[in-house]
Amino acid sequence: MRAEPKMPSSPIIGVLALQGAYDIHAERLAQLGANTRLIRTPEELVGPNGPIDGLVIPGGESTTFLKHLERAGFYDVLHDFVHTKPTFGTCAGTILLAKDVDNPPQRSFAALDIAVERNAYGRQNDSTILTAETALPGGPMEMVFIRAPRISRVGEGIEILATREGNATLIRKGKMLAATFHPELSDDIRVHQLFLNIVRESS
Q: CB of 91 within 8 A of CB of 185?
């Protein structure tokens, strides 16, 4: 009698839980069948509980992220992780993943060959919700922008999946996914589903 093939186990997705709407990211991923872990220390990222399969770096304030990471000795561990494992950055997470950061310049992981301008669309009061077509199946997507960065340059081999005023807002390269908007604040789960698909493809 032939054994039935085993179903792949649910991926374990970490969500960097230093600031931002990390809990909502975790809820969206759990909705889609992922196991989630909130990551607050370098030990939780690579420590005794076993490796995670992918990581979400949520929105927030990128300079505050850097202060938390540098105080905890977390920066170098996270730098190595994002260069080797599936990672999804949203808003401030995209800034941290970018190769070049302007307005003003700041340190980053340089994991994606893009240039970003911080707070390019204005301050908190200039935040907006747009609905636009994307390269993802399923029709127009709601995109929530809060003090969003602008991707001003996209390097070779990066796939542009959505735009705003001609600038990329959702991009992918290999195991990396980045958005300048907040998909966790919408009921549309397609971006999180895409990241789970990337993680499964990479495992």
A: no
